[in-house]
Amino acid sequence: MTAAPQLVVHRDKELMARAAAARLITRIVDAQSARGSASVVLTGGRNGNGLLAALAASPARDAVDWARLDLWWGDERFLPEGDPERNYTQAKEALLDAVPLDPARVHPMPASDGSNGAKADAAAEAYAAELAAAAGPEDHGPVPTFDVLMLGVGPDTHVASLFPELPAVRETERTVVGVHGAPKPPPTRVTLTLPAIRAAREVWLLAAGEDKANAAAIALSGAGEIQAPAAGVYGRSRTLWLLDAAAASQLPHDLYPPAVA
Ligand SMILES: O=C(O)[C@H](O)[C@@H](O)[C@H](O)[C@H](O)COP(=O)(O)O
């Protein structure tokens, strides 16, 4: 049984992004000090990219040893390489092009014009193989033990590209699957599954803005994971919701934590 999710509520979207970026820097530095490297899973979307931009602008940014950081993605829009709508493209613009990462340690999900052909299911199998190759005997299954796995939360409670009631959220064996007919464009995507997400040490859910208030309240009030995928994600040692006051506005009062700045 996993511990209950922890909640932190910040004044507004901008402060939440800056505070989450500072939190991520600290977690990466701690992991690198303890194990010599760190492993982080990025998320797409406005909140995810806002955090990356805040990280790029952080005065503490270069406390991170960027050459000893492994970056993975929780999901990807299945589009051609360089498409401005790809999560990888947006992450590069927000942060990756500004820091001295080791390219061999940056693992974008395949593009639709890559070697897997225009088949999202084949791209998913390739990424699952890449994850398995990076896993070691100390890891929990065919994925590396990510230090932090971040997930933006959709207004319908989707996380990554796990949408309510669609097949991907029901997957219990494979670590990566193709998604077809996603309600959030583009319709074709590649996504980690719940088993892969749950291998992470810490799972952070990012929810800022009034449009996330209903999703946060549903996910945190005992909804099932098929109907509310954000309710089904948890880390091995920590599950953390990072919200702003607007996204927390519909939470039951007993869940609403003491406000921070
Ligand atoms: O490919 C994507 O779109 C994301 O991975 C998706 O899961 C996103 O994180 C949520 O939809 C929240 O997006 P916003 O932060 O823009 O609301």
UniProtKB/TrEMBL annotation:
Glucosamine/galactosamine-6-phosphate isomerase domain ranges (all copies): 12-241
Source species, domain of life: Bacteria
Gene Ontology terms, MF aspect: 6-phosphogluconolactonase activity
EC number from the UniProt entry: 3.1.1.31
Pfam family, one: Glucosamine_iso
Keywords associated with the record: Hydrolase
Catalytic activity: 6-phospho-D-glucono-1,5-lactone + H2O = 6-phospho-D-gluconate + H(+)
Pathway in which this enzyme or protein is active: Carbohydrate degradation; pentose phosphate pathway; D-ribulose 5-phosphate from D-glucose 6-phosphate (oxidative stage): step 2/3
CDD domains per the UniProt record, alphabetical: 6PGL
Record-stated family: Belongs to the glucosamine/galactosamine-6-phosphate isomerase family. 6-phosphogluconolactonase subfamily.
Summary of the function given for this chain in its UniProt record: Hydrolysis of 6-phosphogluconolactone to 6-phosphogluconate.
Protein name per Swiss-Prot or TrEMBL: 6-phosphogluconolactonase
Taxonomic lineage of the native organism: Bacteria, Bacillati, Actinomycetota, Actinomycetes, Kitasatosporales
Encoding gene (name): pgl
